[in-house]
Amino acid sequence: MKNVVERADAASKPVTSLSDPASGPADGWEDVADEFIEAREQSTIGVEVVRPWARALPRGAAILDLGCGAGAPIAEALAEDGFSLYGVDASPTLAARFRRRLPQAGVACEPVETSAFFGRSFDGVVAVGLMFLLPSDAQRTLVGKAARVLNDGGRFLFTAPYQVCEWVDPMTGRACRSLGEDAYRALLDEAGLAFVGNYVDEGDNFYFHARKPGRVSVSDDKR
């Protein structure tokens, strides 16, 4: 199993001050932020999956990027395609770099589990390289939160190994865990999301794609 390091109207977007970041832990990523940024800026892994996924969303759709890192290459690619990006990352260094890279995007420096962005709605939610970094209970909670913030017809895309497994992240030394395909699909169903399909990118990362039933609509602040 390969796990490539992946941790993806500006005035209307709430932004957490990067000079006074949220108090939540950066989960080890702050210590390796520079190394992580260098690795992701040299990679396009994931873009070939995320771009086709986003084409099913309305033009200019609002997308929440959970564990956004420094914005490269996932959020950057989506912004280039005309989508409205909102990123969340607990690392002050990564969140600050995201803000510099994508000045028109909203960004919050806070733990994804308690992000204030869950207080609004989105057309898409993406979490590349994040889910398996969280404790099992937090993963289950996050799936439910992602489902609740989606507009009707909205889409959720995240990565996690298809098998049930545990390993140590080589960059941060943190324990990682995948609940496995059956568990993730059950969680999506419990959250009221319809499973669409699985994808594998060039780095052998495994994706889950789900859709919220209903007519496609755009976020409240895009109407």
Could you characterize what this model shows?
With 223 residues, the chain is α/β, with parallel strands linked by helices. The chain has one domain (10-222): Vaccinia Virus protein VP39 (Rossmann fold, 3-Layer(aba) Sandwich), CATH 3.40.50. The protein is built from six helices and nine strands. The protein has helices at residues 33-41, 47-54, 74-80, 92-101, 136-149, 181-190, and strands at residues 62-66, 84-89, 106-109, 122-127, 150-159, 165-168, 175-178, 194-200, 206-211. Strands 3-2-1-4-5-9-8 form a seven-stranded mixed sheet, with helices on both faces. A hairpin with a 5-residue loop joins strand 8 (194-200) and strand 9 (206-211). The longest helix has 14 residues, at 136-149.
The CATH first-level class comes to Alpha Beta
Which radius of gyration do the C-alpha atoms yield? 16 Å
Work out the helicity level. Answer: 25-40%
Number of domains: 1
Strand % is 15-25%
Main beta-sheet annotation: 7 strands, mixed
Order of helices and strands: HHEHEHEEHEEEHEE
Number of helices: 6
**CATH structural architecture:** 3-Layer(aba) Sandwich
Give start-end ranges of low-pLDDT stretches.
1-25, 219-223
Which structural class fits the helix and strand makeup?
Answer: alpha/beta
Going across the biggest sheet, name each strand in turn: 3-2-1-4-5-9-8
- Give the termini separation: 43 Å
Any idea of the CATH topology?
Rossmann fold
Count of DSSP E strands? 9
